[in-house]
Automatic annotation (TrEMBL):
PANTHER family given in the database record: STAGE 0 SPORULATION PROTEIN A HOMOLOG (PTHR37299:SF1), TRANSCRIPTIONAL REGULATOR-RELATED (PTHR37299)
GO molecular function, one term: phosphorelay response regulator activity
Ranges where the HTH LytTR-type domain occurs: 399-464
Species this chain originates from: Prauserella isguenensis
Full protein name: PAS domain-containing protein
Signal peptide coordinates: none
Length: 464
C-alpha cells in the first residue's frame, strides 16, 4: 500500500449547505445530486436503494455477537490497535478521536479527546456497535470497508442526518490475497475539520499494518509450494496449488493448460499469481477455502469446464494448512474425492453476467451497456473507462474488483493497468521480442500494452 491520501474534497462538495440541500432532495426520492462528490452519491444510492438505511437514524445498532474472521486477522487488529493508540495524543490535542473496527464494521476500540468521545457515545460511536455502511449509512468506517482507497466524509455527506456535525476520515486494511477488509482505522472530529496531517497519519499506520499481511501471504505461498512439491512426487494426475482467492500459486504444464494460464512458475508473492479465466473454477476454489477454514479435514470435489474439453472435468480440492491456518488448496484434475461442492455451473443465475457498467460524470452515474466500454485503465487509486460517451470514472473501487465483475463477459486483464473489451480490439501490433500492443476501436485508437505474463492468454483468446 502506498501512502494514503484521499480525493480532493473541495468544491463543489466542500459547500456543506449545497450538499445538505442535495441530501434533502435525495431522501425525498429525487435524483438531483448537484454538488455531491460521485463517491458520496454512489454511497447514498447504496444506503437508500440497497440497504434501506433510515436517514433519520440517530444511533448505530449493536454489532452482532459472532464475527467470522481468520485467526491471523486478530494479530493484524492487535497491531492496528497499537498503532492507532500511538495517534491518540496527537489526535486528542485537536479534539478528535481515533477508532478501529473489524472487517464487519464492529467498533473494537477508541482513543482521543474525552469530550468528543462523550458526544460520540450518544450516537453509539463506541465499542461493540456496528458502523458498517449497510447498518449506519455513509460514514468514514463503513464506507472505507467498501472502498479500496481512503475516504473522507464531511458534514452532510453522512447519510444519517444525526451525524452531519461530524467529519470522518477512514481507511480499510485488506487481506493481501482475498482483498477482503480485515479492519478499518478512522479519525473523527465533531463540528470541526480533520487536521491537515490526518491523511498522512492514516496512511502511515495502514502501510505499517499491511506489512504483516504481506509477510503472512509470502509465508503461506512458500508453504503451499512445498505442499505441491510433496504431492507432485506421488501423483501422476494434473495438479495445481491455489490460494484462498482461487489464484494459481503453482501448476504443472497440463493443469496450466486446463486452467488457461501460461506455464506456471512458483509464485509465493500474491502480486504475481495467475488468475484463471474460469469463473466457475475460481468460485469453487473460494468455496473450498471457506469450507476448509471451518473444517480442516474437509475434502471436496466438483466438475468444471476447462479450456480443452467440451465435457466437464472432475476436480478435487484438498486444503493445506500452516500452523492451523489455511493457506490454500491442492487441486487434482481427473479425480473426484470427498464432499460434492454445490453445483452452480449449470445454474442460470450463476452464469448471469453484468448487463451494465456504472461510470460517473460530475454528480451523475452513467449506466453503460458492456459494448459501449472499450477498456478500463487504472490510474493510481482511480479506474477510468474509455467509452462511447467519453472518458468516465468507474464506480467500481479498483481494477481488480472491476475485472471480477466483468469476468466471463468478454473482458480480459491484459496488463496490471488495463482490462479490455475483447470485441473492441481493432488491431494487434507485434513488437520486438514477441510483445503485443492492442489498438482499440475507441475514438483515439488507443494503444494498450499487453504484459509479457498475459501475452499467452491474449494469443489464445484472439487465436493469433
Amino acid at each position: 500500500m502506498t501512502e494514503v491520501g484521499w480525493h480532493d474534497p473541495t468544491s463543489p462538495s466542500a459547500d456543506n449547505a449545497t450538499v445538505y440541500r442535495a441530501w434533502e432532495r435525495f431522501v425525498r426520492g429525487e435524483e438531483d445530486l448537484r454538488g455531491v462528490r460521485p463517491e458520496i452519491a454512489i454511497s447514498w444510492h447504496r444506503c437508500r436503494d440497497q440497504h434501506g438505511v433510515d436517514p433519520h437514524l440517530t444511533e448505530a445498532p449493536v454489532a452482532v455477537a459472532q464475527v467470522d474472521h481468520a485467526l491471523e486477522h486478530d494479530v493484524v487488529i492487535a497491531e492496528l490497535g497499537f498503532r492507532a493508540a500511538s495517534l491518540a495524543h496527537e489526535v486528542g490535542n485537536v479534539g478528535g478521536i481515533v477508532t478501529i473496527t473489524d472487517g464487519s464494521g464492529r467498533v473494537l476500540a477508541q482513543w482521543g479527546d474525552q469530550t468528543t468521545r462523550n458526544v460520540a457515545a450518544k450516537a453509539n460511536l463506541a465499542p461493540w456497535f456496528c458502523w458498517a455502511e449497510g447498518a449506519t449509512g455513509t460514514n468514514g468506517m463503513g464506507t472505507a470497508l467498501l472502498s479500496y482507497t481512503p475516504v473522507l466524509i464531511r458534514g452532510a455527506e453522512h447519510w444519517c442526518e444525526a451525524f452531519h456535525d461530524w467529519t470522518c476520515g477512514g481507511v480499510a486494511i485488506r487481506d493481501v490475497v482475498t482483498r477482503e477488509p480485515v479492519a478499518t482505522l478512522n479519525i473523527s472530529c465533531w463540528r470541526s475539520e480533520l487536521p491537515g496531517t490526518a491523511g498522512t497519519w492514516l496512511g502511515n499506520v495502514a502501510k505499517m499494518t499491511q506489512r504483516i499481511l504481506r509477510q503472512r501471504a509470502q509465508d503461506d505461498g512458500a508453504e503451499l509450494i512445498a505442499a505441491y512439491s510433496h504431492a507432485r512426487s506421488g501423483s501422476r494426475v494434473p495438479l495445481a496449488a491455489v490460494d484462498p482467492a482461487g489464484k494459481v500459486v503453482l501448476a504443472d504444464d497440463t493443469a496450466a493448460v486446463l486452467l488457461g494460464i501460461p506455464g506456471s512458475t512458483p509464485a509465493a508473492d500474491p502480486a504475481v499469481r495467475w488468475k484463471p479465466e474460469l469463473p466457475e473454477f475460481i468460485g469453487a476454489a473460494q468455496y473450498a477455502a471457506k469450507q476448509a477454514s471451518h473444517n480442516p479435514g474437509w475434502v471436496g470435489s466438483t466438475q468444471i469446464f476447462t479450456r480443452l474439453a467440451n465435457e466437464p472435468t472432475s476436480v478435487t480440492f484438498r486444503p493445506v494448512f500452516l500452523s492451523g491456518h489455511l493457506v490454500g488448496n491442492l487441486v487434482s484434475f481427473g479425480l473426484s474425492d470427498g464432499d460434492p461442492l454445490p453445483r452452480t455451473a449449470d445454474d442460470g443465475a450463476a452464469r448471469t453476467q453484468p448487463q451494465r457498467v456504472v461510470g460517473t460524470r460530475e454528480n451523475r452515474m452513467v449506466l453503460l451497456r458492456l459494448p459501449e466500454v472499450s477498456f478500463a485503465q487504472s490510474d493510481g487509486s482511480d479506474v477510468w473507462l474509455s467509452t462511447d460517451q467519453g472518458r468516465l470514472r468507474a464506480a467500481s473501487p479498483g481494477l481488480d474488483k472491476l475485472e471480477t465483475e466483468l469476468s466471463g463477459a468478454g473482458f480480459l486483464r491484459v496488463h496490471r493497468q488495463y482490462v479490455v473489451n475483447l470485441s473492441r480490439i481493432r488491431e494487434v501490433e507485434r513488437r520486438i521480442k514477441g510483445e503485443l500492443c492492442l489498438v482499440m476501436d475507441d475514438e483515439a485508437n488507443t494503444m494498450v500494452p499487453v504484459s509479457r505474463r498475459n501475452t499467452p492468454a491474449v494469443r489464445q483468446l484472439l487465436e493469433i
